[in-house]
């Protein structure tokens, strides 16, 4: 993946490189990615199997797996700009904090 980043790879390409590490858990299977291969989040994944029976809805950056977040260029619907990705990263951290509070 480091080589892909150094070569200026797009977010979609990097998501494809990361896919084997997630073993299909987040992207590429059963509608978890959009038609371009970007990871769906928020309302787009509310009907995913892992969310059935959950007591809460997915957060705006939460993927089809509760507690797993996507931000920046790999996320479907992002604006693919550095400043936006930084902001989404901060939002994802807040989302993680919110999820962790449910375990307290």
Overall mean pLDDT stands at 80
Question: What is the number of helical segments per DSSP (H or I, 4+ residues)?
Answer: 3
The total number of structural domains is: 1
Q: Approximately how much beta-strand content do the residues carry?
A: under 5%
Q: What is the tally of beta strands? A: 0
Taken from the alpha-carbon principal axes, the silhouette is: flat
Which residues sit in consecutive blocks of at least 5 with pLDDT less than 50?
1-7
Which structural class best describes the helix and strand composition?
A: mainly alpha
Helix coverage percent of residues?
25-40%
Terminal residue distance: 35 Å
Radius of gyration: 14 Å
**Could you give the order of the helices and strands?**
HHH
Assembly category? single chain
**Major β-sheet profile:** none
